[in-house]
Structures are given as C-alpha cells and as structure tokens.
Amino acid sequence: MADPIKVLMVCLGNICRSPTAEAVFRARVQAAGLGNQILVDSAGTSDWHAGEAPDPRSIHHAAGRHHDISGLRARQVQAEDFENFHYIFAMDRQNLRDLQQHCPPQQRHKLGLFLQHGSGQLQDVPDPYEHGPQQFEQVLDLVEDASSGLLAFLRQQHVQLHAGQQKGA
Ligand code: 4NP
Fold first, then answer.
1. Does residue 153's CB lie within 6 angstroms of at least one atom of ligand 1?
2. ∠ at Cα 111 (148, 59), nearest 5°?
C-alpha cells in the first residue's frame, strides 16, 4: 500500500477551529474506509495554548454533532511539519500568511486555505474565540462542508484512494 497522505489543519490557537477540522475530517475519512490512507493532525501558529485540551465550547458543540474532541491537545506548528505533511490547510488568511512566513519555499505548494474546498464563498473560517454559540456552530457547518470537498479532492488527486474505495475498505 502507498504511504499515507498526511493532512495538517492549522489555526491560531489550535483549541477551536483546527481541532474541530481535524476531528470532523478524520471522521469523514474513516467513514469512507480510508483511515489507514489519510492521516490527519492539527496545530496552531501560536504556542498560546500548547498542551491544552480544546476550548470547552468547541468540545460542547462538536459533541452535539457526535464528535468527541476532548482528548486532543494543542501544539504549535513545528519546522518539521512542513516536511512531514503533504497538505497544510489554514483556517483563515492570517494563519496562511503566518505559515507562508515560516515555510521553506520548496514546501510552500503544500499550503492552502481549508475553505478552498468548501462549496460557499467564504475564504476564512471565522475565529469563534471571542464570540458565542452561533459562531461555534458556524465553524462546524463550514468544516463539515469543506471536509466533503477535501475528501473528493484527495480522491481525484490520489489514485490509491479510489482503489481503497472499490475494495470496500
Ligand atoms: P482558534 O481560536 O485559532 O480557532 O483555536 C483561538 C483560540 C485562542 C485565541 C484566539 C483564537 N486566543 O487569543 O487565545
């Protein structure tokens, strides 16, 4: 079997948006039987919450959609991430600019906005940290939508994912 495709979700704190994206996209991958072929992780551009569990509001709203993110722990993006991951998705344009500043030029093609794979017009998953329940629900809406698009995109790009699907894996 080909090496797994590694996907990193990135936001500012790694306690709201990117852990949500990690869990929702991983669930989508697992439901497609591709859990061994697509690996998902998340990190923050800052180290402000390193070692912490996701924000309790993110845990609560994710649980409302049957995603348990309580076991995830925040970490900051490391230099090796640019080498190790095949795709690195920023939750907003500021996160993308921060990643571009630290990413070696030969790895910059790996960087993109997660909502490039969404079906709507928004480019950024709005930061819910200073906001209320509606914004946390919006994060989930946007992340669920973009996760479908991203899985379809990866299937187009990587022939081995079609093979896995046909076997009913
Ligand atoms: P996240 O949200 O980037 O989606 O994890 C934030 C979390 C913490 C802070 C800002 C945004 N903060 O200022 O601590």
1. no
2. 50
